[in-house]
Amino acid sequence: MSYRKKHSSPKPEQQALFPPAEVEYSNPGAIRTLSTARLTSGLPYQRPVEQKNVDKLIRNWNSRELYPVIVSFRDGKFNVVDGQNRIAAMRQMAGGGDVIVPCMIYTGMTYEQEAELYAKLDKGKRPLTPRQHTKALVESGADARIMEIKCLVEDVGFVWALTEPTGEPFEIAPIRALINAHQLLGGEAFTRMLSLLAGAWQGTPNSLRASMLSGMALFVKTYEAELSDRAFSRRLSIVSPDEIIRLGRIEADVGLRFARIILDKYNGGGAELPYRFKR
Fold first, then answer.
1. What is the rounded average pLDDT for all residues in the chain?
2. How far is the C-alpha of 79 from the C-alpha of 85, rounded, in Å?
3. Cα–Cα distance, 171 to 154 (Å, whole number)
């Protein structure tokens, strides 16, 4: 089956293999053919189509290995869950026009279930970036810890940048560092850490880098009972995050080196906290 020429309808042999689309569908999924004009893709839980991946598909195209596109029929729309790159490749080979494609169509799925299915299907392909995977989990609502982190971040007034970061104040771009901080501290201390960051540096981008989050998490974990929030905001607000980052490049252990510098800056403003970090 070739898509190098524009087709307005499937060939006879295609019709025999993939029966024409019908109005009603049931689970388990049924294979039908649909025009790409009827398919909706680019949903928030999906990674964007990349031209280099489309070009690779075209170079290695084999119509015998054309697997059905996974589609969810919801609210009157055929939503592409998996197969965006294949669709883009087929349309490009057809000169940019719409083509008829085989689809495995499911009904009764919610948006969240689509996002969860997408994350599962994509595991066997090129790995999602941490940001893409976390974004899919947030859209699905299936991971309680990820949803808690997002809520706590927003409650303090920050935004967790699960799409491409813009560099705006109060936007937290790191993924793993933030998840690790939550795992280390737990919800209450995690919220406290974010409040300390906001109070000292007012959401400046450099104060929210992965290294700063790692250092702050270790600092708060170590001195949780002894730390004065008011003293922290007063003493650290006069220290630029850039200075902490510059000094932090000396130590090999990222979290430890930044925690040590934060401790040093905190102690420089009055009563001292003892050194309690353990390697």
1. 83
2. 14
3. 10
**C-alpha–C-alpha distance, residues 46 and 143, integer Å:** 17
What's this model's pTM, rounded to 2 decimal places?
A: 0.60
- Least confident piece of the model among 22-26, 144-148, 223-227: 22-26
Asked if the bond preceding 28 is cis, omega within 30° of 0, the reply is yes
Residue 245 tokens read as 């980052």
Segment 200-212, tens digit of pLDDT: 999 999 999 999 9
| Residue 36: Cβ-neighbour burial (10 angstroms; 0-12, 13-18, 19+) | buried
List for the chain the helix, strand, coil content (%; round to 5).
50, 10, 40
Give ∠ CA 187-258-144 in degrees, rounded to 5: 20
> Confidence class of residue 46 from pLDDT cuts 50, 70 and 90?
confident
Q: Is the pLDDT of residue 139 over 50?
A: yes
Judging by DSSP bridges, how do beta strands 30-35 and 100-107 pair with one another?
A: antiparallel
* Residues 228-240 as b or e (16 or more Cβ within 10 Å = b): eeeebbebbeebe
With 90 as the cut, is the pLDDT of residue 119 above it?
no
C-alpha dihedral (189, 192, 193, 197), degrees to nearest 10: 180
What separation in angstroms does the CA of 88 have from each of 14, 136, 183?
19, 21, 40
Sheet containing strand 69-74, edge to edge, reads 30-35, 100-107, 69-74, 77-82, 39-40
CA–CA dist 221, 183 (Å, integer): 11
The alpha-carbon radius of gyration of the chain (Å, integer) is: 25
Task: Classify each residue of 102-126 as buried b or exposed e, where b means 16 or more C-beta atoms within 10 Å of its C-beta.
Answer: bbbbbeebebebbbbbbbeebeeee
